[in-house]
């Protein structure tokens, strides 16, 4: 759905068109125009801070969304849902929304998102009350929730969170850069949604290093920024300046049981001039930070892939910090660490040695052999197919390593991936 700010509702600006490029060609899309004039509806209206609304991922105190694929979930009665987006909403943000487990709808103020003709609206099972879910797809953009409306006489209900949660901490690779729907086509989203009955938070932003220094215009690295609500975008600088809100881990809806880190592709780029020592120190501190905030979480360190190159008459995968990442995992599993485990509080240079010994909690996920050279697009990121491959393997790794069963029952995960051949004998 293409969102326009309230000013569009008031008719001050022309409708902007949302375009998805596919191999350089414009993909045919048919997003419904959901903008309405609220004065012609009889709504029951809820404020953005209503307890019935569950915000997924990171949203700030102004109810502005950050990072990749943040979401909003609530139950509702009746067959109408509209949302008024606040003035801090980025023009032309693409969001996906759906009711229950039906397919994602993308459309393009107050937007009437659910109507009597929305797929699934008349079905009362197995999801009851019917749920509404929205996800911001563009990592660079965000929405601000101002009001949520249902028909007069109807109501919202709070949907309790699922019992399992995964969090990704990453860069452009995890945030879905250069995939069709960005956040909603990323491997991180694919793992989170694909596990089924799982909350997922994708704290990832393109170009960011783990090392706390400027990388591709991001002023801070994840070893610092992960502790904050907003990402390192220009949008965040505009709204929060030099004083972003610390993320309140205590108020987070759920605590992740698994945290997956994919960081280093930007540190590894000579343009960012990060020393190997700085990278390793920052990576270790990020893990210590995760351990401090989520003492029971298992951490997965992802092997980096740096793209492919032609090697004689075939292809090879480029790797980055290959030995360093293995050494980091070994370090956390060593007796030396486990006998004096430490946490990092993210705001000073201090690490604190924990009183209680830790159990091993850091795991290595090898990405070798999952993608092939044509699963990486011209701008060095997984294609939609590449993202699906990574998500599938990582999901299976989580199942085999931690015993998390796959419980999704068939509702759509990746949108617009239905490629098929219905001819024969050609
Ligand atoms: C929401 O915010 C309004 C005003 O900012 C306040 O009056 C109200 O009590 C808040 N509601 C909840 C549920 O926090
Ligand atoms: C839901 O039921 C109403 C009333 O029968 C009908 O007009 C509408 O088309 C139905 N919606 C869907 C998605 O089937
Ligand atoms: C990169 O870092 C090294 C060591 O800190 C420094 O000597 C060098 O000037 C830096 N190069 C650039 C381009 O910043
Ligand atoms: C953290 O390290 C930086 C750079 O080494 C230093 O300037 C700063 O004073 C240190 N802060 C604390 C709280 O130790």
UniProtKB/TrEMBL annotation:
For this UniProt record, give its keywords in alphabetical order, as a comma-separated list. Answer: Signal
Protein name, per record: SGNH hydrolase-type esterase domain-containing protein
InterPro entries with a match to the protein in the record: CtCE2-like_dom, PCW_deacetylase/CE, SGNH_hydro, SGNH_hydro_sf
Protein's organism = Daldinia eschscholtzii
Drop me one GO molecular function for this one. carboxylic ester hydrolase activity
Q: Where is the SGNH hydrolase-type esterase domain?
A: 168-386
* Residues making up the signal peptide according to the UniProt record: 1-18
The reply to whether Signal figures as a keyword in the UniProt entry is yes
């Amino acid at each position: 759905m293409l969102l326009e700010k309230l000013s569009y509702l008031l008719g001050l600006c022309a409708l902007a068109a949302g375009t998805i490029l596919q191999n350089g060609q414009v993909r045919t899309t048919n997003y419904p125009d959901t903008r309405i004039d609220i004065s012609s509806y009889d709504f029951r209206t809820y404020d953005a801070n209503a307890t019935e609304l569950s915000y997924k991922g990171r949203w700030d105190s102004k109810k502005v969304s950050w990072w990749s694929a943040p979401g909003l979930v609530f139950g509702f009665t009746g067959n109408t849902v509209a949302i008024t987006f606040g003035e801090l909403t980025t023009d032309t943000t693409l969001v996906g929304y759906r009711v229950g487990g039906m397919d994602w709808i993308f459309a393009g103020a107050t937007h009437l998102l659910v109507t009597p003709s929305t797929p699934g609206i008349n079905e009362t099972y197995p999801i009851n009350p019917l749920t509404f879910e929205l996800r911001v797809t563009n990592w660079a953009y965000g929405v601000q929730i101002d009001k949520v409306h249902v028909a007069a006489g109807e109501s919202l209900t709070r949907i309790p969170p699922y019992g399992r949660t995964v969090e990704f901490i990453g860069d452009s690779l995890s945030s879905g850069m250069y995939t069709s729907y960005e956040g909603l086509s990323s491997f991180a989203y694919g793992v989170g949604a694909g596990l089924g009955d799982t909350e997922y938070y994708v704290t990832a932003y393109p170009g960011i290093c783990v090392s706390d220094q400027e990388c591709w215009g991001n002023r801070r690295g994840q070893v610092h920024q992960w502790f904050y609500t907003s990402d390192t975008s220009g949008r965040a600088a505009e709204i929060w300046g030099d004083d972003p809100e610390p993320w309140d881990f205590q108020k987070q809806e759920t605590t992740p049981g698994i945290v997956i880190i994919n960081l280093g592709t930007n540190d590894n780029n000579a343009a960012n001039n990060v020393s190997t020592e700085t990278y390793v120190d920052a990576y270790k501190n990020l893990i210590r930070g995760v351990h401090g905030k989520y003492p029971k979480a298992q951490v997965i360190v992802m092997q980096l892939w740096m793209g492919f190159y032609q090697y004689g008459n075939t292809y090879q995968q480029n790797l980055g910090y290959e030995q360093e990442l293995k050494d980091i995992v070994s370090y956390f599993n060593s007796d030396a660490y486990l006998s004096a485990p430490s946490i990092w509080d993210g705001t000073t240079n201090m690490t604190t040695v924990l009183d209680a010994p830790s159990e091993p909690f850091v795991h290595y996920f090898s990405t070798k052999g999952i993608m092939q050279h044509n699963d990486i697009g011209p701008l060095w990121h997984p294609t939609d197919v590449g993202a699906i491959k990574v998500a599938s393997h990582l999901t299976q790794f989580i199942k085999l390593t931690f015993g998390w069963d796959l419980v999704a029952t068939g509702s759509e995960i990746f949108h617009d991936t239905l490629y098929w051949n219905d001819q024969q004998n050609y």
